[in-house]
Amino acid sequence: MQFGKKKVLNNINLEIPEGSVTAIVGPSGSGKTTLLRTLNLLQLPSDGSIAIDDAQIDAQHIERAKIKQIRTKSTMVFQQFNLFKNLTALENVMSPLVYNKKTKLNEARKTALAVLKDFGLEKIAAQYPVTLSGGQQQRVSIARAIVAKPKVVLFDEPTSALDPELVAGVLNAIAKLAEQDITMVIVTHEIEFARQIADQAIFVEDGEIVDQGVAKELLSTQGNGRIANFVNSLVNQGQIEVAGN
Ligand SMILES: Nc1ncnc2c1ncn2[C@@H]1O[C@H](COP(=O)(O)OP(=O)(O)O)[C@@H](O)[C@H]1O
Ligand SMILES: [Mg+2]
């Protein structure tokens, strides 16, 4: 993947088992967001291929229909929530059903309300994003991301824009999803959280996957690996705490 002449992702070879949770960690500017955006085809790859489920796209033969097919398989949860400001929480969650799946309004409302309820958000269903806390907004965007049952949900540092006291509520919402059969890819600096919910972890540096393995083993302060160095630097900066490993 390159921007102009600048190669941002290189040599990425990643397989994500269905129903698994993958944590992506790595320093700022290493290409984590670009990797997620490429998986979702918000960014078209300049080389290589991407396959989700039965849909595949090749950088050499990019077709509009294929792009659409892949995009409907995955959804993204952004750092800055990205809710539609002119729609209520309920209407935001209804929107993928109404606009992408052409679900009837009544049915979409019912489904969206049920998902909001799962996230403990039924009381704020009629409110507009501007009246909600960051934690509530992010939980609404997670509800919106899963309402139409995508194969894959991509999270880009979902808690990094939140006040510290709101982080736990959003992490709980994500942990609940991890128990279901949704395939999830999460870019996060919440190492302890990732260690608990992720199956595999990958470490990205300078646009390449430089370390990959079982999350519980890799996301640790022990050892000499690059991940251990990175985790230790976060701990030393007081950014995170990592328990018992
Ligand atoms: N739209 C863009 N145009 C040009 N360069 C970009 C663009 N988006 C990201 N980059 C560059 O690509 C690299 C990786 O960025 P990004 O994927 O956002 O990293 P991360 O999410 O790991 O912080 C950085 O050097 C960044 O400046
Ligand atoms: Mg990023």
How many DSSP H or I helices?
9
| Mean pLDDT figure | 90
CATH class: Alpha Beta
- What name is given to the CATH topology? Rossmann fold
The count of domains is 1
Description:
The protein is 38% helix and 18% strand. It is of the alpha/beta class. Strands 6-7-8-3-9-10 form a six-stranded mixed β-sheet, with helices on both faces. Strands 1-2 form a two-stranded antiparallel ribbon. The protein has nine helices and ten strands. It has one domain (2-81, 88-236): P-loop containing nucleotide triphosphate hydrolases (Rossmann fold, 3-Layer(aba) Sandwich). The longest helix is centred in the C-terminal third of the chain and has 15 residues, at 164-178. It has helices at residues 32-39, 64-71, 89-100, 105-118, 134-146, 164-178, 191-197, 215-218, 226-236; strands spanning 2-3, 6-7, 21-25, 49-52, 55-58, 74-77, 152-156, 183-187, 200-205, 208-214. Strand 9 and strand 10 form a beta hairpin. Adenosine-5'-diphosphate (ADP) binds next to helix 1.
Topology of helices and strands:
Layout: E1 2-3, E2 6-7, E3 21-25, H1 32-39, E4 49-52, E5 55-58, H2 64-71, E6 74-77, H3 89-100, H4 105-118, H5 134-146, E7 152-156, H6 164-178, E8 183-187, H7 191-197, E9 200-205, E10 208-214, H8 215-218, H9 226-236
Parallel strand pairs: 3-8, 3-9, 6-7, 7-8
Antiparallel strand pairs: 1-2, 4-5, 9-10
Helix pairs in contact: 3-4, 3-5, 5-6
The chain binds adenosine-5'-diphosphate and magnesium ion.
